[in-house]
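Hi F.,

I've been meaning to write this up properly since the lab meeting, where we talked about keeping a consistent format for the predictions we share between groups. The idea is simple: the sequence comes first, exactly as it goes in, then the structure tokens exactly as they come out, then a line or two of notes. No screenshots and no reformatting. I'm using this chain as the first example so we have something concrete to point to.
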Amino acid sequence: MKNNRNKAGIVLGILLMSLTITCNTAFSPILSEIGKSFPDASDSSVQIVLTIISLSTFPMMLIEPFFERFLTKRDVAILGTFLMLIGGILPHFFHSQLWMLYLVSVVIGCGLSLVVVTSSSLIADYFTGLEKSKIMGYQAIFASLGGAIVAKGSGILTTNFGWQNGYLILLITVPILLVMFTCIPKGEIPKIESNSGGFYISGKLIYFGFLCLLAGIFISTFNTNIAMYLDRNGIGNEQTAGTVSAIMQIAGILSGLIFGFMVKSFKRFTLGIAVLLSAVGTMIVGLSTNLIIVCIGALCMGVGFAMRNAGGVSFAANMVNAVQASSAIAVVSASFNLGSFISAYVINPLAGIFGSDIRLRFIISGIALLLIGLLTCIRSPITDKQAIDA
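Output, unedited:
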């Protein structure tokens, strides 16, 4: 009975910690207002405010396993959450230059990377098999719920108090920190065996990372363009963008609820299906300027996005032993976030070849995601046994 209570407390702590792990996508509602404050800046320069969060996670996720040689996973997660809190407060005081926002994004990204890796790794430490997939699904629910809170909250704060105060939504990390201290055991720093041989990156893991890189490039089109897309087509303002982003995040709750069922039913095809759903959502947005249709696209994108996130970290952990789980999660997560960073540099000029309409960015990304989803289904980086952690 006590063990069950302990596990329940651990689950609660990890899930509340996960409320912040999609904040890099949830800040998209403020981009159009930042662009208006810096009229001489290009679209790509403004989009970097969001995507540089993903860039900074790339090295930090790869470095994170080394933090675990000196700190427990819980303490690494607490450090990451605290950095996100600092990143939420800084723009209130430093926002007169675009480069200041870039530095803020680096701080948020560094914190985010530590939370993403440790939250998933802690699940892999305490749970196995389909139970682990179930908890990963719950994590996707809380990540989506947190993303919805950040997206809608940042939109409301931006509308009423200015975009520089939109970042203050990250004050939600204060109660999260208290719960992490209370519910998650401190744990121990694992001893490194001298003959362990270190972490070996297999060919399949490299291939997995490559697929995540490609997915990151084209999935990020939605988050980095949706606010400008709505504004330029006269569909709505930053608060409308917050609503659309929140719908995307809330759709992830549905994805979290069915994730365990999806893994059990479709096994290695789960990832490919997730990317295909993202393709459908992106295409729907690109082919319509009707707000209701755009919201339907956001719904499809949200389900696919959350399912891909949960599947990515869960399946990466299943490909290696428990000691190497953090490193494997870091590889696939960092690859996806690197793709997110270079997204604007790939999509914007590619779409520019065919015209200046911002809808082209969504249409091209939708087509690319369709191809990536099919490739992931045909040549999955994991086996059925690895998918269910059998």
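Notes:
The chain has one domain: 2-185+201-387.
The chain is about 75% helix and 0% strand.

If this format works for you, I'll send the rest the same way.

G.
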